[in-house]
Write a structure and sequence with these properties.
Number of strands: 8
Length: 143
């Protein structure tokens, strides 16, 4: 992985065989990133995405392996209990043009992944909401 900061933007290249969340956490730690939006593209060969079932308050996860191009990757870097937290959604297409996606749990890069982090001046913490069953932003009275 390599990255370079340009003011309030950080460009990140994640390399073949590297896991996306691990590399994002490393960049966030090195650069002291508290809050940022994430967008990206690239290629993956092993990833897990899921859908949150509100009725059961649980994620249904699906693992995909093979050649996939990232069609869309978007989300946020923030904090939960003062620690790194990353919430990403990803869509990826296969060789036949079929696209799958959802809440990203894990992704291993097959060729490259290019990310743009847009830094936000501030910090937001998350809290677990038992009614919804998710970790939500605490925007009032937070950090």
């Amino acid at each position: 992985m390599e990255y370079r900061r340009f003011g309030e933007k950080v460009l990140v290249r994640i390399d073949r065989g590297e896991e996306l969340f691990q590399q994002l956490e490393e960049v966030a730690q090195r650069e002291g990133i508290q809050l940022a939006s994430v967008q990206g593209l690239g290629a993956v060969d092993d990833f897990t995405v899921g859908v949150f079932r509100v009725d059961r308050k649980e994620f249904v996860a699906n693992r995909f392996q093979g050649a996939y191009e990232i069609v869309s990757l978007a989300g946020t870097i923030d904090r939960m209990d003062g620690k790194f937290y990353c919430h990403l959604h990803m869509s990826a297409g296969d060789a036949q043009g079929r696209v799958v996606g959802g809440h990203l749990k894990r992704a291993v890069v097959s060729a490259t992944c290019e990310l743009v982090l847009s830094l936000v001046d501030g910090a937001v913490d998350r809290f677990f909401d038992p009614e919804v069953g998710l970790n939500l932003w605490r925007l009032q009275g937070g950090l």
